[in-house]
Structures
1.
Amino acid sequence: MSMHAVYTVSCWLLQNRCRGEGGSVARTSPLPRSVQIVNEHNSRLCADLHLHTITDVQTSERVSLLLKDSFIESFAQRERPFIKQFVETQIFSVFVDSVIK
């Protein structure tokens, strides 16, 4: 599945999760499920994230860094403009921090 297709499906899911029966807006918050959907999407998108990190093991505290250029280049040429912008978002940064620690 292409990045655009995954993004489109994710947006559709986020928009339609808050709809109840008959298309009315549900009274419960869609936020927990939305966060789960975004995390699942990020997990699939970043499945090989560890291949693009470096880790300093010489200090008492393990420190890992993402090599953004390497990560971006691992995607197909047509997907890179989206990924290049996506890696600069806060949601991506928080996700990466939780994965590489």
2.
Amino acid sequence: MKQALFSTASGGRAAVSGLPTLTAILFAAFSALMPAASVAEDATTAGEYDNKVAVITGSSHGLGHELAMLGASKGMKLVLVDIRPEGSEILAKQIREDGGQAIVYEADLASAEQRPGVIAAAMSEYGRIDYLFNNAGYSYLATHEQMDLEQAHQLFEVNYWAYADLAQRAIPIMRKQGGGTIVNVSSILGMRAAPPALGHYAATKHALHGLFQTSAQELKKDNIKVFLAAPGGMKTLISQHSVGPMADPKSDRAASWEDPAIVAKDIFEAMQGDEVIFNPGYEGRQ
């Protein structure tokens, strides 16, 4: 098991200090663009996240990074998890300099042996887990005929089994606390047919919907909310981190996609409701 990288706290598949108030400044600038009603809503709900502990996988880049920044701005205590920890380290350092709390845990979520350490690190540092953001993931690009079974299994370990495993480990902790929230980042491709070569990736997302829609029913009595956030394409490093015979790391297919900061904000807003499946970002506004 890899050790947590403590300072005293898809995204990628795989875990500079700026100005002392950079996190707060970025959030303030983003908030200034929100409609007045949204700003008012943020002010009302901000208190409920203060000192809540959130585990975020795939936190070094993309949506996971944005969820972490937004969570920190709301006073959350963070456990940032990634196989490529550099981006998470920079972010955690900045959060601590801004007066927040964050630790980094480096883990390859494809390894079942490393996954228990994620939960253990959160409990060791903070003694509770209020939010689990299952976000880490990547894409294996291959047609059905091109499928390599070992690579397809590896994809499912990260995009599906890690979500199921971490959630299963967090459930008894949340139940004992009196409740919690599990957010699983799916995709619009978990709700419709995928384009050629994306069938394996889409299959992992459909599998998440199958499991966690049922989990939401099972855990309602325990005051544990379960969500499936299914956004469209976002500007992330998904192209660079793609593998498989149809992958082309030099071609950034996500370059013109949606800003993940918008999706992160929508996820926090949707957590105030009870809809298990929702489409953050432009998919939910069509």
